[in-house]
């Protein structure tokens, strides 16, 4: 496995590889990230990854400084998974002092995480576009746990005519249903025992909607249930899967999306409906 820390090292390493499948990450890797490497290999592409905690997608009161970092552990996991190349850029190489360009997104970024975290998706789109330019992948693999992010990146690629195929990879879950996330490590023992209720409540709501129950009443009841478990829902909504616009009657394709606060962690999850 090649490790590149400068743009010159990256260019030299990239020249030794053919068509690649790229997994952009912020490190603190878990099985969900490793699944992206597996998906690239299954597609017949040389698996490559990046590790970069991107400052421009964090708000002023968010957890950039304490975001978990474990470079040695991450590299060991990627090597074991068969990753061919890992790009470890510095902040200075990603955002030179004289940089004059960034990306502003709308469309699927407008609501939900976009409303809760102003500027977040501008930072995501900008860094992903830079990484695509540096890595020049055939395809890029993103976990479906961050469903809205996948749609934002997909729309950016389409709008800017970038020659990258976006491949969503199903969410990897713990045995009790909790979506794997780097931030789960911040949950206390009691909070960790409570956290799977988000997915359980969402599955129940999805079944009710599919059975013909009213969307608004079903979601209102689900939010009350989450509150009863000690969570603070930021949103729980049925949306059109690609635009992320809210819908009040089941149509295809639809997605149930949620974010709920539990202790120090915002839990995100989603699942298809119908």
What is the number of domains? Answer: 2
**Level-1 CATH class name of the largest domain:** Alpha Beta
Query: Cα distance, first to last residue?
Result: 42 Å
Q: Major β-sheet, in short?
A: 6 strands, parallel
CATH domain fold name of the largest domain:
Rossmann fold
Q: How large is the count of helical segments?
A: 10
What proportion of the residues is helical, as a percent range? 25-40%
Give a quick precis of the structure.
The chain has 274 residues and is of the alpha/beta class. It has helices spanning 7-14, 31-42, 71-81, 91-94, 113-116, 120-135, 147-159, 189-194, 197-210, 215-228, and strands at 2-4, 20-25, 46-51, 85-87, 139-143, 165-169, 232-240, 254-262, 265-273.
Structure description:
By secondary structure, this protein is of the alpha/beta class. It folds into two domains: 2-169, Rossmann fold, CATH 3.40.50.620; 182-273, Pantoate-beta-alanine ligase, C-terminal domain (Pantoate--beta-alanine Ligase, Chain: A,domain 2, 2-Layer Sandwich), CATH 3.30.1300.10. It is 37% helix and 20% strand. It contains ten helices and nine strands. A six-stranded parallel sheet has the order 1-4-3-2-5-6, sandwiched between helices. A three-stranded antiparallel sheet has the order 7-8-9, with helices on one face. Helix 6 (120-135) crosses helix 7 and helix 9 (197-210) packs antiparallel against helix 10. The longest helix has 16 residues, at 120-135. The protein starts with a strand and ends with a strand. The mean pLDDT is 97.
Write the layout of secondary structure elements.
Blueprint (H helix, E strand, L loop, with lengths): L1 E3 L2 H8 L5 E6 L5 H12 L3 E6 L19 H11 L3 E3 L3 H4 L18 H4 L3 H16 L3 E5 L3 H13 L5 E5 L19 H6 L2 H14 L4 H14 L3 E9 L13 E9 L2 E9 L1
Helix pairs in contact: 6-7, 9-10
């Amino acid at each position: 496995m090649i490790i590149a820390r400068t743009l010159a090292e990256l260019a030299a390493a990239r020249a030794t590889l053919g068509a690649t499948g790229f997994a952009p990450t912020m490190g603190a890797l878990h099985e969900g990230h490793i699944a992206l490497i597996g998906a690239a290999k299954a597609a017949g592409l040389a698996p490559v990854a990046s590790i970069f905690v991107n400052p421009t997608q964090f708000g002023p009161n968010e957890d950039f400084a304490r975001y978990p970092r474990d470079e040695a552990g991450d590299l060991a996991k990627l090597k074991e998974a068969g990753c061919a190349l890992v790009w470890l850029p510095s902040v200075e190489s990603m955002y030179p002092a004289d940089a004059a360009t960034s990306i502003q997104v709308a469309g699927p970024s407008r609501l939900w995480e976009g409303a809760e975290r102003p500027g977040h998706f501008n930072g995501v789109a900008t860094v992903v576009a830079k990484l695509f330019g540096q890595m020049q992948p055939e395809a890029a693999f993103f976990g479906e746990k961050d469903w809205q992010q996948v749609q934002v990146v997909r729309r950016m690629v389409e709008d800017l005519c970038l020659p990258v195929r976006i491949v969503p990879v199903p969410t990897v879950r713990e045995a009790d249903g909790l979506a794997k996330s780097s931030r789960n490590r911040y949950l206390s023992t009691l909070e960790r025992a409570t956290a799977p209720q988000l997915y359980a409540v969402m599955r129940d709501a999805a079944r009710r909607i599919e059975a013909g129950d009213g969307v608004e009443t079903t979601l209102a009841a689900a939010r009350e249930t989450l509150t009863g478990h000690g969570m603070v829902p930021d949103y729980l909504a049925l949306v059109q899967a690609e635009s992320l616009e809210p819908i009040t009657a089941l149509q295809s394709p639809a997605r149930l999306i949620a974010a709920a606060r539990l202790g120090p962690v915002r839990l995100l999850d989603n699942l298809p409906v119908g």
